[in-house]
Amino acid sequence: MYSRFLGSDPAWNGRFFTGVLTTGIYCLPSCKAKKPKPENVRFFPSCDAARAAGLRPCLKCHPDDFARGADPVLESIETLVAEVRAEPGRFSDARSIVRRSGFGTTRCFELFRLHYHTTPGDLLLRTKVEAARRLLISRSSPLTDVAAEAGFEAISAFHEHFRAFNGMTPSDYRDIASRSAFKIDLPPGYPLTHLLRSLGRDPVSVTERLDGATYEAAVDLDGVPAVMKIQFSQEGAAVSLDGSSDVETAQRVAAHRLVIGMLGLDQDAAGFARLARRLGLARLVAGRPGLRLIRTPSVWDGLLWAIIGQQINLPFACLLKRRLIENTGTALPGGLFSLPTAAAIGRLSPSDLRPWQYSRQKAEYLIGAAQLVAAGTLDLAGLPMMSATRAERTLLSVRGLGPWSVNYLMMRSLGFADCIPIGDTGVTSGLRTLFRLEERPDADATRRLMSVFSPHRSLATAHLWQINRPSP
Known about the structure:
This protein is of the alpha+beta class. It has four domains: about 1-65, DNA Methylphosphotriester Repair Domain (3-Layer(aba) Sandwich), CATH 3.40.10; about 75-180, Arc Repressor Mutant, subunit A (Orthogonal Bundle), CATH 1.10.10.60; about 180-265, DNA-3-methyladenine glycosylase AlkA, N-terminal domain (TATA-Binding Protein, 2-Layer Sandwich), CATH 3.30.310.20; about 300-465, Endonuclease III, domain 1, CATH 1.10.340.30. The protein contains 23 helices and eleven strands. The chain has helices at about 1-5, 45-50, 65, 70-85, 95-100, 105-115, 120-140, 145-150, 155-165, 170-175, 190-200, 250-265, 270-280, 300-310, 315-330, 340-345, 350-355, 360-375, 390-395, 405-410, 425-435, 445-450, 455-465, and strands spanning about 15-20, 25, 40-45, 55, 180-185, 210, 215-220, 225-230, 235-240, 330, 335-340. Strands 5-9-8-7-6 form a five-stranded antiparallel sheet. A four-stranded mixed sheet has the order 3-1-2-4. A two-stranded antiparallel ribbon has the order 10-11. Helix 5 (about 95-100) packs across helix 7, helix 7 (about 120-140) packs antiparallel against helix 8 (about 145-150) and helix 14 runs antiparallel to helix 20 (about 405-410). The longest helix is centred in the first third of the chain and has 19 residues, at about 120-140. It starts with a helix and ends in a 6-residue tail after the last helix.
């Protein structure tokens, strides 16, 4: 228990509570307060037991709130974020968000990083860009009016930020509705060869294929299965959809969102590279300072992979996923398959998956998760809009999803910026190389070593996955 407490391991919250005799306070295992000496620590099975010993609850981690299922500090931040997202134009800058929060500046920034993996200013900017996307498609208003309604005070700032996040100008984005294809620009120095290597990691995949710099994938676009084709060059990504003349605007918008997620245009690669250099760890980003974390085509795709890929090597995981899709997915024109629906997998039994070399436990986890999705108990569409804290708690409650699976899903599918897939062999091998360790770090050492990269630990993970691989 003391080692879990030292590691600030949230997976043990509620399983025990930690009392510190010198301060008279009891905490959750995940509390970020300074760690006491072991001789000053006692462990309790409940908050009642800790109070009976004369201790009082920590004002930083609020163990009583956690024990009764309430989290008023988290709820207040979630309410504030909902207000920002509903009316971004009401907030001029980060200071206005801090004032509305009722917390001090330092505490407010700390809570935003903890619960949303971002800062108030960055969340506001992203929300304004998202509002502008909606307005550009739904209205024909002049760009100056769109910028003002989305909350941008200057048209130049609107153009600059919109293009950085979307790979195109506001005018070009509005034209998506009438185009048979569109192009997304890449930022200078984008490591395209790393992207192509990742996209081609399974050369016999039945959902995607890469031929040189041409990529095709079976994707779900706003509920409609389609084949998306991308022609990559160093300047950008030219995107077209199968049967594009019949594709609705909603599907084109969904395709754009999917591709910018794949390209990672909303990730602060430059900020992470600066952090690595400031830490004296420039070798971590050497040759690929612009590396991004590739987003999965959908949360459902990420969930399937997070369960299938647990505790097995990559080639075998790819094989298991192919067999599942070939037997339960839908064939599309051109020889690719769309992913099976959650309902289709939920109707299977573990014995149906045994001939495809699934272990009974993996089959049960996969079918159980699919049944939750099909029943609406696990709302995959709602997860990206949750706080990182709420999303993590939701996913950890799913049988078969542990810390590795949940953090993998949060960074690869939900886009959270400060995740660590604890236990990932690529991460531990990368840390061993980076810090020149004699052996690979355990879970607690991984957390301590990765802490220096906060709030960019997802990008740190992407670089650690590459550090022991030759340049493509």
